[in-house]
Amino acid sequence: MEKRFFTIKEATTYSAQGRTTLYDAHKHGELTFTKFGNATRIEKADLDAYLNKAGVKSQAQVAA
Fold it and tell me: Which InterPro entries does the record match to this protein (predicted)?
C-alpha cells in the first residue's frame, strides 16, 4: 500500500530536496502542508505536483 502522507523527513528522502527547500516552498505557497494536531505532513499528490512543476524528479521517478 502506497503512503498518502509523508513526514517532513520522509518527504526529503522521497523528493531528494532539503528540509529548508520544502519549508521555503510552503512559505511561498508552492507546497501545501497538512497538520494533524502538532504533526506536519505533506500529501504525496501535493509533493508530486510541486516536483513536477519545479521540473524535479523524485527518487521514485529516478529509480523507475
Answer: HTH_17, SinI_DNA-bd
Q: Where are the domains of the chain?
A: 5-63
Q: What CA–CA distances, in Å, run from 35 to 6, 19, 21, 22, 60?
A: 11, 17, 19, 15, 25
**CA dist 62 to 20, 42, 56, 57, Å?**
22, 20, 10, 6
DSSP-assigned beta bridge partners for residue 6: 42
Position 59 pLDDT exceeds 70:
no
pLDDT, residue 56, reads: 75
Question: Any idea which residue has 518527504 for its cell?
Answer: 11
